[in-house]
Give the backbone structure.
Amino acid sequence: MADEKKHGARLMADRKDNATPSASDQEDEPAASARDRLERKPYTSEPGRRAIRSFVLRQGRFSEAQQRAFDLQWPQYGLDCIAAEGQPRDFDATFGRSAPRVLEIGFGNGEALRYAAAHDPARDYIGIEVHAPGVGRLLNALAEDGSRNVRVYHHDAVEVLTRDIAPATLDEGGLDEGGLDEIRIYFPDPWHKKRHHKRRLLQPEFARLLVSRLRDGGRLHLATDWQDYAEQMWDVLDATPGLRNRAGLRGHVPRPEWRPQTHFESRGQRLGHGVWDLLYDVRR
């Protein structure tokens, strides 16, 4: 536990710009334009609603280049969560093709998402992040790369999953219709204080929501450098119907080649800290 506290003290500053959003009660307000998206609260759609969230907005430094990215690149790469429940987005129309799709929740500065999209052009990638500087950096990077298989939300992940992404369903023959190929959640905020554990992203209800959006045979990949959070992930996911841990009960795997190593992960490993990659397959 002492090592965990030291670990947290060293890495929390890095998390502010790179980690999955943390949590706070926020009042909701819709977004109207690229500039409004930064100045208002862009991550929920229903005015007046308050809820425990898995993030707080730590916007950090927002450069002119990142602002220009919103102004210039959002029409190409950005998606607004405006669908009503029961009327999900047509991603075939969004991407102009039918392809397997991967969702990354809390992409931080977008390094992993950018890398994956460039090295896996056969699949489409969807990213969700509430922190504007990280979204701006990724927008600039995607434009530089000329990416065609990436779209991003500057929004709350729960609302995007609930409203814009259709659940996987079975046809009359028992075969999957729709559903994501994979969901990735890398280094979500650990909320290391016990009284804040309720704010952690990985809770039983959220896990069930993830499973409902994955096709049969799809994959859920999580990574954390906080052992206590890995323990909670196992507690939640091993008990979630439809998920099977690829490494066995309470198991983890070496870092897969498709997940690039982050700078704060490298720093932590130099200090002797662990990283836990959890891979779950969906089996209905």
